[in-house]
Amino acid sequence: MRVSLFDFQRDALHLLRDKILAARKFASSQQPQAIAFSAPTGSGKTIMMTALFEAILDQPDDELAWPLDWEPQSDAVILWVSDMPELNEQTKLKIESKSNKVYRVNQLITIDAHFDAPRLDGGRIYFINTQKLAVNQPLTNRGDGRQHLIWETLTNTALAIPDRFYVVIDEAHRGMTAGRGAQAAQTLMQRFVLGYPEVGLVKMPLVIGVSATPKRFMDLLEHAPHTIHKIAIPADEVRKSGLLKDRILIHHPEAATTAEMALLEEAARRWGQMTTAWGAYCKDEQEQVVWPVLVVQVENGSDRQLTRTDLADALTVIESAIGRRLNEGEVAHAMHDTGDLDIGGRRVRKVDASRIDADKNIGVVFFKTSLSTGWDCPRAEVMMSFRRAEDHTYIAQLLGRMVRTPLARRIEKDAALNDVHLFLPYFDTQAVESVVASLHNAEDVPPAETGSSRNLVVLKRRDGTEDIFAELDGLITYRVNAARAQSPLRRYMAIARSLTTDEIDDDTWDVAKRQIVEWMGQRIAAIKDAGQFNAAAKAITQVGLRTLAVQNGTGVSEPAADYHIDASDVDIDRLFEEAGRAFSHGLQMDYWRAHADRDALEVKVEAIVLARNAAEMAKLEAQAEAAFDALYDQHKKAIFKLKEQRRANYEKLRLATAQPNEVPWHLPAAIDFKRLPTDPLWERHLYVEANGQFRAELGTWEAAVLKEELAKPEVVGWLRNLDRKPWSLEIPYASGGDVRPMFPDLVVVRKSGSEFAIDILEPHDPSLSDNFEKAVGLAKFAEKHGALFGRIQLIRKQSSGGGEHFARLEINQAATIKKLLLINSNPLLDELFTDVLK
Question: Using the 8-state DSSP alphabet, how is residue 354 labeled?
Answer without folding.
Answer: G
